[in-house]
Write a structure and sequence with these properties.
The complex is a heterodimer of chains A (164) and B (213).
Chain A lengths: L1 H26 L3 H19 L8 H16 L27 H14 L3 H11 L4 H8 L3 H19 L2
Helix pairs in contact in A: 1-2, 1-3, 2-3, 5-7, 6-7
Chain B lengths: L2 H10 L10 H8 L6 H22 L6 H5 L3 H28 L6 H39 L1 H8 L8 H49 L2
Helix pairs in contact in B: 3-5, 3-8, 5-6, 6-8, 7-8
The chains are: A mainly alpha (164), B mainly alpha (213).
Chain lengths: 164, 213
């Protein structure tokens, strides 16, 4: 039973690990911290997996657990760390012709997101991932109306950082 | 097109992380030790209990002579037992709250639950400070109320000293000692728990702001 559960978890998480990587990339600014947070997210996912009933998609459930880990359970402070050494993550874009505009844009976007506070980071991340307001409000535990208002403010903040 | 829509397109086309973890690696990670804030709060609590127990065992028996001289031995033993009982209850609540934490809750609920641990920590700090203050207050009151006892304890060699002078010196030195100890203890708590809870407090404030919208 436990072994079946474990096999299923490993395959679910292996397929969806990119969600966790993206969260690590916005909440940490160097590779060591990225790996640390990824490890903590993996632990929390596995710890709670037996209670995942499959009412929702694994990925939906994973967004919540992984974001919560980054916002509330991860031990290290995320604000004071030095800016990321961008060489450890190659922002290569899937494009047929080589054009580094998008690559630079992605770098700029991550750099701007790093300047937001933890909650705004979560809001912007869920917006970029195209999540509906219902899911955003359920994940954060706030009303849809508040999620909307707060989202607009977070977007304004991000725009101001990107285009001062 | 809105500025952010452009960035959103870029976001969507970003590559997968170059360091993908294999199932074997994920298995190892899943079974490694957690280092979450909640766990650290629990560990620090345990270390504190160990710290106070060690101090208690390291104190030489001669130190307790003062209580014997004052006939306070039984009371002291009673309060010692009560003290460790109370600390055990606090630790039990630490553990209970730690177990209750689940990353599956929504963020607001999760932060509220962690905040409950924070409150346990806060009450624990208040309790410790109160005990230090109260025990020194009681000891002093007993000492001061009986000048013969005071003489016996503070001046065992029976040197000729003025009793008023002795009382003043005793009170002043006691106050200074208690103040120094309380400041050190307060600094210790401020440093350890302040460091542990800094990020949580910040995010909690943000969420409160969300509620007030």
């Amino acid at each position: 039973m436990q072994k079946d559960l474990e096999t299923k978890f490993l395959s679910d998480f292996e397929q969806n690990q990119n969600i966790a990587h993206k969260i690590c990339r916005i909440y940490t600014t160097n590779q060591d911290a990225h790996n640390d947070l990824f490890q903590e997210i993996t632990i929390q996912l596995w710890k709670n997996y037996s209670r995942f009933r499959g009412d929702s998609k694994f990925s939906t459930w994973m967004y919540r657990v992984a974001l919560n880990t980054a916002i509330s359970l991860y031990r290290k402070s995320t604000r004071t760390v030095k800016t990321q050494d961008f060489s450890d993550f190659a922002y290569k874009i899937k494009a047929t012709t080589y054009d580094n505009t998008e690559e630079l844009q992605l770098k700029a976007l991550y750099k701007a997101i790093h300047k937001l506070n933890d909650i705004d980071k979560a809001l912007i991340f869920l917006y970029l991932e195209d999540k509906p307001y219902k899911e955003i409000s359920e994940t954060l535990g706030i009303t849809s109306v508040n999620a909307r208002v707060k989202m607009n403010r977070a977007k304004e903040k991000l725009k101001n950082i990107l285009n001062p | 097109m809105d500025l952010l829509d452009k960035y959103k397109k870029t976001w969507e086309s970003q590559p997968e992380d170059s360091k993908r973890f294999s199932k074997v690696e994920i298995y190892k990670l899943a079974h490694s030790k957690s280092s979450s804030i909640v766990k650290w709060i629990f560990i620090v609590g345990l270390l504190e209990l160990a710290f106070w127990l060690t101090i208690n065992m390291l104190i030489p028996d001669s130190f307790y002579k003062i209580y014997e001289d004052l006939n306070l031995e039984n009371q002291v033993n009673f309060f010692m037992v009560l003290h460790y009982l109370v600390i055990s209850v606090f630790l039990y609540f630490f553990y209970l709250n730690y177990k209750k934490i689940s990353a599956v809750d929504n963020t607001k609920k999760l932060i509220h639950k962690i905040l409950k641990i924070r409150n346990t920590v806060k009450y624990y700090v208040y309790y410790n400070l109160t005990i230090v203050f109260l025990s020194s207050f009681i000891l002093n009151s007993v000492l001061m109320s009986d000048s013969d006892k005071l003489m016996k304890v503070m001046n065992p060699d029976n040197l000729s000293v003025d009793i008023n002078q002795l009382i003043t010196v005793t009170i002043i030195s006691q106050i200074i000692a208690v103040l120094i100890f309380m400041v050190l203890l307060w600094l210790f708590y401020k440093l350890i728990y302040g460091y542990l809870l800094k990020k949580l407090n910040r995010n909690h404030k943000e969420l409160i702001k969300l509620e007030e919208l």
